Amino acid sequence: MTATPRHVPVVVVGGGQAGLSVSYHLKQRGIAHLIFEKETAAHTWATQRWDTFCLVTPNWQCDLPGHPYDGPDPDGFMKKDEIVAYLAAFVAKVAPPIREGVAVTRVTRRADGLFDVATSEGDCIANEIVVASGGYHSPIIPRMAERLPGSVVQIHSNQYRNPAQLPEGEVLVVGSGQSGAQIAEDLHLAGRRVHLAVGDAPRCARFYRGRDVVTWLADMGYYEKTVEDHPLRDGVRDNTNHYVTGRDGGRDIDLRRFATEGMRLYGVLEDYRQGSLHFRDNLKRSLDGADRTYNGINAAIDQHIAEMGIAAPAQAPYTPVWEPGEPVTRLALEGSGITSVVWCIGFTPDFRWLDASVFNGAGQPKHKRGITNEDGVSFIGLPWLNTWGSGRFGAVGRDADYLVQVIQKRLGAERPALKFAV
Fold it and tell me: Could you give the count of Cα atoms lying within 13 Å of 172 in the half-sphere of its Cβ?
């Protein structure tokens, strides 16, 4: 006789900070649930970050439910080991019902409206599915990588740990978002010769007129702005994050200054053929665009200071310290000195395990504040799920609270806590 699958009212897929935040609020309301995590709780911070990684937002913005930052440096930036410790303490505090090392392989809707959940350790049935696995699943490495010589070591940003990991020689970093810019800086500070293929990522100042820019923006209400309030609406979810760093107490990342110190900058890497790397002629346009964003944010802060009558030291707009010369659109690999490539061009989502009509043509979920048009399916931990902080420690707890309120109503708010056997 086939055993009847166990019933779990709420299944949470993913045991990072988003899934743990959902668990916290479910436990607060006495709602039985189970987290499935294919690795270990919050593992990506320990296993997919480089050694000098640190937060780019101040520690005071770390506000997981019931677990705000309470360390000695609220205006500082937690380093990798500190982040791991902060999350380990959160896991201990939540004490979630979690099955680590268990992958969810398929979720399908049943005729009775419940969900069949297939996992690597067996099946169960659920009323609600909360997808808390984030949106960064499959590292993007372009097909041109297959044509590079085997002598060139290639890794993705999630595999990079430190400069010593790469062979001697010069390094090509592809992509200038947060990871690309910070990894390029890490290699540059270690004395490695870096070639950086620059994309269209914007940048912002670390400090301006006496305060951290994040603090100014918080005072201006930027982090409370929702997707619906943003001029780009849903399009803001496709924006690339601004590059800046919290390293060594926090500072700007200025690619132009790196260029004056020997880093070689190019436009977007478009192809590798006939022994040469081919770059788009967009370097000047990208650098100018990043600086416009930088100065634009500062100008908005200037306006806020003036309107509120705040006493703050004056600061001039940024002016370029370097300008690109004749664009380099082709570089012969042989003789360039490049022995390794770090691909920093992001990830694609992979929700193939979820059989539900909730995705757009790009494979991204369609939702409002994480709630989809399919009853019982919700998402959390995605960038701009509701506000800028939705994918970060700052607002994921609020998103989880809202999500769990919706789930509680769907399960029946007046019912006693649902019981089940783990």
Answer: 26
DSSP state letters, 82-125: HHHHHHHHHHHHH---EEET--EEEEEE-TTS-EEEEETTEEEE
Q: Rounded distance, CA 213 to CA 322, Å?
A: 24
| Beta-bridge partner residues of 108 | 116
Please say whether the structural domain 6-137+349-411 has been given the CATH code 3.50.50.60.
yes
Could you tell me the two tokens for 371? Answer: 């709630």
Please list the rounded mean pLDDT of every run of 10 residues in the chain (422 residues): 77 97 97 97 95 97 96 97 97 98 98 97 97 89 97 97 98 97 98 97 97 97 87 70 95 98 98 97 97 98 98 97 96 97 93 95 90 96 88 92 97 51 36
The predicted model scores a pTM of 0.94
Identify the pLDDT of residue 236: 60
Numbered ranges of CATH 3.50.50.60 in the chain: 6-137+349-411, 143-343
Q: CA–CA separation, 154 vs 340, rounded Å?
A: 6
- Asked whether 163 and 141 are in contact (CB, 8 A), the reply is no
pLDDT at res. 416: 38
* 154 in Cβ contact with 340 (< 8 Å): yes
SS3 181: helix
Residue 6 near residue 421 (C-beta atoms within 8 A): yes
- What pLDDT is stored for residue 419 in this prediction? 41
Backbone angles phi, psi at 254, to 5 degrees: -115, 100
Amino acid at 401: D
Q: CATH top-level class for 143-343?
A: alpha beta
Q: CA dihedral defined by 45, 49, 53, 57, rounded to 10 degrees? A: -50
Where is 187: in which H helix or E strand?
helix 178-189
By three-state DSSP, how is residue 266 classified? Answer: strand
Whole-number Å distance between alpha carbons of 81 and 135: 23
